[in-house]
Hints:
The protein has 417 residues and is mainly alpha-helical. It has a single domain, classed as Cytochrome c-like domain (Cytochrome Bc1 Complex, Chain D, domain 2, Orthogonal Bundle), CATH 1.10.760.10.
Amino acid sequence: xxxxxxxxxxxxxxxxxxxxxxxxxxxxxxxxxxxxxxxxxxxxxxxxxxxxxxxxxxxxxxxxxxxxxxxxxxxxxxxxxxxxxxxxxxxxxxxxxxxxxxxxxxxxxxxxxxxxxxxxxxxxxxxxxxxxxxxxxxxxxxxxxxxxxxxxxxxxxxxxxxxxxxxxxxxxxxxxxxxxxxxxxxxxxxxxxxxxxxxxxxxxxxxxxxxxxxxxxxxxxxxxxxxxxxxxxxxxxxxxxxxxxxxxxxxxxxxxxxxxxxxxxxxxxxxxxxxxxxxxxxxxxxxxxxxxxxxxxxxxxxxxxxxxxxxxxxxxxxxxxxxxxxxxxxxxxxxxxxxxxxxxxxxxxxxxxxxxxxxxxxxxxxxxxxxxxxxxxxxxxxxxxxxxxxxxxxxxxxxxxxxxxxxxxxxxxxxxx
Length: 417
């Protein structure tokens, strides 16, 4: 298969420990991921809400060095939702990170576990990355294109795309009979890019410590011990190292991609103060009382880089998140998240009380030092440790201690069925 090299591409090598090798399909996906012309007013792209560049206000140890693959405007300003292509329009949920999303299994009901797992978006409505990549273009508060054909017409305006789609997918973007296949191929290219090492690095301090190449500090180790034990984090944010049929080790993903209602307070600062999102149970195709209020558990990798937190962005800091998980059910109630004391000495009521998780959170009895230790451990999950770690045993340019390429999801799993 022919390789294509595009002058428009700015690879992740600028923000990584070394050059990332992309396939021709992934290179096309990167260009499409950055193409603002695929939005109604040519001002919005995938990258607008899932940035490839680091935020200038990232936490002190990684300031401007490591991308979090979220909306950097929200990181800088503490705003919860992203603006769309149309002025004045914005979403109602916090834009999640794309990092490691490729590992989420296809959405399904897991009969042995008796619960739903996998999929994309906070409610899992897209079965996989390809379905997910198709939605923002047509979402009226995101990229706001009217239909698939309008998106394809924008592709036709770029003379390079015709050859690339023909050679990679054998589709003619200028043929009206190929609109659906072209649109599917557009999403497939973007999803292929999202399965690359750009988004899935496995080179955090935790990864190097897991491989025995460096050591966690005393407080980081304390936090890890609490994470596995008293703080109950690992019940949902799994720390298992898995091994595939080829003997390739895959480091922990810090989630099992299930759904929970953690009792987040309503975020009254979202524009127009929308009604609370019902999550999994709010989907028309599920609509079960037993699933109301449940949202997908995201990976904790790079969590330091992705404020604000939660599906509604109600928490501004990682410290606030841990404090909430620890004390949700024991501190006094205040009116809302703008009330005095919120996040420190009080909490607002859960926005959805159905199916509340009271087993792994709410009254963990952690003291202030233990909360701090958990937060400190979570910061070891930040990518690109060789750049920000200043660790003599892991100099800049040190590759992941794991075989990243072998650990990535199989490209065949992303092909249309």
